[in-house]
Amino acid sequence: MQEPEHKFESIFTVDCVVFGFDEGELKILLIERNEDLFKSWWALPGYYVGQDEGIEHAAERILYELTGLRDIYMEQLFTFGDVDRHPKGRVITVAYFAMIRLNGQKELKPVTSYARKAFWHPIKDLPQLAFDHDKIVEKSLQKIRRKISYQPIAFELLPEKFTLTQLQNLYEIILNCKLDKRNFRKKMLNYDILKELDEKQRGVSYRAAKYYKFDRRKYNRLFQKELSFNK
Amino acid sequence: MQEPEHKFESIFTVDCVVFGFDEGELKILLIERNEDLFKSWWALPGYYVGQDEGIEHAAERILYELTGLRDIYMEQLFTFGDVDRHPKGRVITVAYFAMIRLNGQKELKPVTSYARKAFWHPIKDLPQLAFDHDKIVEKSLQKIRRKISYQPIAFELLPEKFTLTQLQNLYEIILNCKLDKRNFRKKMLNYDILKELDEKQRGVSYRAAKYYKFDRRKYNRLFQKELSFNK
DNA sequence: TCAAAAGTGTTTTACCTACACCCATGA
DNA sequence: TCATGGGTGTAGGTAAAACACTTTTGA
Fold first, then answer.
1. Which positions of strand C lie within 7 Å of protein CB atoms?
2. What is the pTM of this model?
């Protein structure tokens, strides 16, 4: 199987597209690079995979180092390996995407030095990105658009308690279209994966909305069914 | 961004899961290895990615070398990089899957020497596979099961002309369940992506079935719509 | 009392499901 | 004429889509 002219070694990395939802906007986490290469450019948080480290582990580690968050919904997205994607040589990157709830906190504190800062950027208004990271972002957007319509990943982005309107806004932003309020509610509540709480919004100058939370147990049951396909 | 203890180089490869449909069975193409490592074991066709070769290109090249086929539907599946997936060191592999029409030909001639032989194996009855290739096969099966229900990739497996019953059989085999004949036909024809041909089966000792072919132009229109999601 | 968002039902339409018999063909 | 698979329609149920007004709250 070896033909030496084809065999070579490559550096490989992971890059993470971390989605958050805040101020009514879908955002992704970018770092400002502190390296000679693409110095001061914005880039996706990414890093070398360790010699004795699984890829998934590397992705989780990087996310932790940048955000202090663990146990986050995370999924492999795609592997980008164009010959010329890295100016200094062949670097193959495995992209992951993650979705986190910001819970109101405005800033995440990186615990590593390999980025000068980490900031949330609205997806609508991204700066120019280093390497082929714009391609990676584009692909991850396609992915969550498709995924949201058959799996309720949107909940990962919302706070523990949320109103149906907040949920609908999020769907509208991800799918980039208006949804009908009554139909949306009917459909969502029909899935029977939301638990209505006793609590209501407070301090709003309009009729207070009920809070709901996501019922992961019920969801798992539903998703089992979804996997068994439609006859 | 560099922290030397994390940076290292890895060999990387592509592996292809090539699906075919023949004798009423879903099959995948396996090679018999001719290397010291896993000698004489069955494995997915895979190979080192070249220094100046894109990953996708490598996948296409390998498929060509093993089957003589080009311009095949092919898609990146997943990247497998467990630390211990290769006994001789860290090898990361990008898996692709492909679907080809066998057109009645029983054998494909590899044009390389890195496999002793290449054979079609029924998916129901696979031999033990080298490395973690069983995991890769499992993942690709999940993928096509899901994909077939929102994209008509099944056509790639059938001959140019096919009967609705052949198409239904293929769906049943991939989805692993019985489908209702009338409902299946109604739904398929409703998609309006099949062209009815004048031709019929010949030489069969029962009522001859009409041949259809896949209308890629109409399909593309449909798929555009599908991508714009449901309000 | 006003502004702003919450909350609520019905009708129409399309699609999914279940189900059984006659037809055409070659042996 | 027989065996084999090809081919067809309908009724009932479920989910999606379209659509507008009343309610609650604080300022």
1. 3-10, 15-20, 23-27
2. 0.91
Other beta carbons less than 10 A from residue B183's beta carbon: 10
Rounded percentage of chain A residues whose pLDDT exceeds 70: 89
pLDDT digits (tens, 9 = 90+) for B98-118: 999 886 666 677 666 677 788
Q: Write out the E strands in B23-132.
A: 25-33, 42-43, 46-48, 73-80, 91-99, 115-122
Domain contains A185: yes
Task: Summarize pLDDT for B203-222 with one digit per residue, the tens.
Answer: 999 999 999 999 988 888 77
Q: What is the pLDDT of residues B47-68, one digit of tens each?
A: 899 989 999 999 999 988 887 8
Domain that holds residue B78: 12-147
For residue B228, is pLDDT > 50?
Answer: no
Q: From the CA of A205, how many Å to the nearest CA of chain B?
A: 30
Cβ–Cβ gap A76/B79 under 8 Å: yes
Judge if A120 and A193 occupy the same domain.
no
- Looking up tokens 């309107």 gives A165
CATH number at residue A182: 1.10.10.10
Name the residues contacting strand D (CB < 7 Å): A 180-183, 186-187, 190, 200, 202-208; B 163-165, 181-183, 185-186, 200, 205-210, 230-231
Give CA–CA dist A83/B18, Å, rounded.
25
DSSP H/E element including B139: helix B133-148
Q: Which of A178, A200, A51, A35 is nearest to A114 (CA)?
A: A35
Supply the DSSP string of B106-127, one letter for each residue. ------SSSEEEEEEEEGGGPP
**Same structural domain for residues B81 and B179?**
no
Reported as a single tens digit per residue, the pLDDT across A63-114 is 888 878 888 889 999 999 999 999 988 999 999 999 998 866 666 776 666 7
- Based on the structure, what is the number of domains in chain A? 2
Asked whether residue B37 falls in the same domain as residue B101, the answer is yes
Burial of B217 (0-12, 13-18, 19+ CB in 10 A): exposed
Q: Is residue A223 within 8 angstroms of chain B, CB to CB? A: no
Which helix (H) or strand (E) is A98 found in, with range?
strand A91-99
Shared-domain flag, residues A127 and A25: yes
